[in-house]
Amino acid sequence: MALVRHRRQLNLRLSLPEPSDLLPPFPAPSASSSSSSAAPAPPTISPSDLETIHVLGHGNGGTIYKVRHRRTSAVYALKVIRSSSDASARRGARREVEVLRRTADSPNVVHCHGSFEEPCGDVAILLEYMDLGNLGSVLRNYGPLSESDLADIARQVLNGLDQLHSRKIIHRDIKPSNLLVNSKMEVKIADFGVSKIMCRTLEACDSYVGTCAYMSPERFDPDSNGGSYNGYAGDVWGLGLTLLELYLGYFPFLDPGQRPDWASLVCAICFGEIPSLPERASGEFRSFVECCLQKESGKRWTVSQLLTHPFVCKDPTSGA
Fold first, then answer.
1. CA-to-CA distance for 299 and 16, rounded, in angstroms?
2. pLDDT of residue 42
3. Does residue 200 share a domain with residue 94?
4. Is the pTM higher than 0.70?
5. SS3 label, residue 170
6. Is the same domain home to 117 and 183?
7. Helix and strand tally (H, E) in the chain?
8. 173 catalytic, yes or no?
9. What are phi and psi of 187, to 5 degrees?
10. Which of 58, 117, 195, 245 has its CA 20 to 30 Å from the CA of residue 311?
11. Cβ atoms within 10 Å, residue 130
């Protein structure tokens, strides 16, 4: 479906730069942080080492390219935010680099091989390449997913969120297109351009960032929560809505084929009933989704609680 973003965010289509025009050598990643899904990185990666293969996508003011190392043939994803992007996109890129630095040891957060910011303001981030793309593209290409697949996805995303939340990092835009997957069925959280690093326990958290279709109800009315909202609970809502979409095959708060707009989304998310699951859904899956999609944020299960839920704790080989 076409995702509705808040009107202050721009989705710029950027021209394709030559890597040699943008990047100096990247610092060498540590051996312990090399991704299991990509070839080991060489000691350093210089601009001339990289060749652009094609554009992978656009988002949050940047363009992502598939690139290849000329000598090793190792493949990476290169995220470029140009200086012509708005200031919030450039700030988001710097924030993303910091988040990825803090979560370099998390197996369910996309791995960063290095970053650079030019004096002109261009920012580039070299990331591991996830060959199946994101869960949104998986849904479009393969159709709705089984409960066993969703349990595995939920378990991996929860592990990633647990690593983030334990470091006081809120993603704020959990949705299918920000969850990457590879041919090993490793699922990793990506795109931290609107994430928030919490410095204080009761720090205010801006609600109008991310994709409004996946915002939790309280984010549309932050005044009712003292001008802020519980971002950790907001991430849990995004996970529950994502799993429901992957199961149904369409965005749950709209009818199949319905074009989204701001008014219909606000009404559906804030005042509508939680979408019902078909009869074939198991009790465990129903319970898990309900724990994520409580309208009152205080009633939602935390990530730690969800990691103990029977839906994600059952034997992944059972095929249930």
1. 46
2. 45
3. no
4. yes
5. strand
6. no
7. 9, 9
8. yes
9. -110, 130
10. 195
11. 24
> Quick check: 153 and 104 in contact, CB under 8 A?
no
Looking at the 3D structure of the chain, how many domains does it have? Answer: 2
Q: Domain holding 307: CATH number? A: 1.10.510.10
Q: Which pLDDT tens digit goes with each residue over 24-70?
A: 333 333 333 334 444 454 457 766 678 999 999 987 668 899 999 98
The structure tokens 């995220």 sit at 79
Confidence band, pLDDT 50/70/90 cuts, at residue 22: very low
Please tell me the distance from the alpha carbon of residue 136 to that of residue 95, in angstroms, as a whole number.
24
φ and ψ at 278, to 5 degrees? -65, 165
The DSSP symbol for 178 reads G
Which residue is associated with the tokens 């839920």? 309
Q: At 45, give phi and psi (nearest 5°).
A: -125, 115
95/207 same-domain check: no
* pLDDT for res 219: 85
Amino acid 60: pLDDT: 66
Return all residues near 13 (Cβ < 8 A) that are at least 6 apart: 58, 63
What pLDDT, on the 0 to 100 scale, is given for residue 315?
Answer: 63
- Band of the pLDDT at 87, cuts 50, 70, 90? confident
Determine the Cα angle at 229 with ends 305 and 259, to 5°.
95
Catalytic residue (one of 122, 173, 191, 235): 173
Could you tell me if 109 and 176 lie in one domain?
Answer: no
Do 102 and 139 belong to one domain? no
